[in-house]
């Protein structure tokens, strides 16, 4: 998907894979000339009953 592709591009490698949850929050920051993955699959904003993979 789009988010996984963006994360692979930010990592600079096609050898990594990401499993992204539905409606999860994923945060990348650009700091000190590099990408930093701050949050991956954060879903605290959803009630437990609404969380799906």
Outline the structure in words.
By secondary structure, this protein is of the alpha+beta class. The protein has one domain. The chain has one helix spanning 2-11; strands spanning 25-31, 34-42. The protein has a two-stranded antiparallel ribbon. Strand 1 and strand 2 (34-42) form a beta hairpin. The radius of gyration is 12 Å and the shape is flat. The two termini are 14 Å apart. InterPro entries: His_PPase_superfam.
Task: Report the helical percentage.
Answer: 10-25%
What would you call the structural class? alpha+beta
Which percent band covers the strand fraction? Answer: 25-35%
Q: What is the tally of beta strands?
A: 2
- The strands making up the biggest β-sheet line up spatially as 1-2
Calculate the terminal CA-CA distance, rounded to whole Å: 14 Å
Count helical runs.
1
Chain-averaged pLDDT: 92
- Rg over CA atoms: 12 Å
Spell out the helices and strands N to C.
HEE
Structural shape: flat
The description of the largest β-sheet is: 2 strands, antiparallel
Low-confidence runs of at least 5 consecutive residues: none
Count of spatially separate domains: 1
